Amino acid sequence: MSDFETVAASELHTATRGPAGEPDAPGQPHTMESKPRSASADAWRELRRKPLFWIAVVIAVVVVVMAAFPSLFTPNDPTSCALSRRLAGPGGAAIFGYDVQGCDVFAKAVYGTRNSVLIGGLAALLAGLVALLLGVTAGYFGRWWDGLVSRVIDIVLGLPLLLAGIVFMKRVSNAGGGQAARITALIAILGLLGWTTAARVIRSSVITAKQQDYVAAARMLGAGSGRIMVRHILPNAIAPFIVIITMALGSFIAAEATLSFLGVGLVPPSQSWGLDISDARNYMRENVIPLVVPSTFLALTVLAFIILGDTIREAFDPKLR
Question: Which domains does the chain have, with CATH numbers?
Answer without folding.
Answer: 1-36 (no CATH), 40-320 (1.10.3720.10)
